[in-house]
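Subject — a protein and its fold
Fields — amino acid sequence, structure tokens
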Amino acid sequence: MLILELAFTSSPERLAARPAHRQRLARLQADGHLVAAGPWADDSGAVLIFDVDRPRLDAIMDADPYYGTSGVRVAGVREWTPVIGLDARGHRHR
């Protein structure tokens, strides 16, 4: 799995692009590529957990203009190996 961390700044462009971005995320979750996503409580950024490899994540990001929108910065991408919880297909890790 990969964790994508975003950092936000105040930007009307970011807020305008958010609804279409969230629709894309809903489709990615329905397809089993996205495990969870959401903003920090203070709206300074967000975390997205993907069950894909890096080339697929890059393709997902390239297809979504949100990641290049003013006010959105990719703060990092890290590989993550969960040992407790569920994967995108609902399988429990033990």
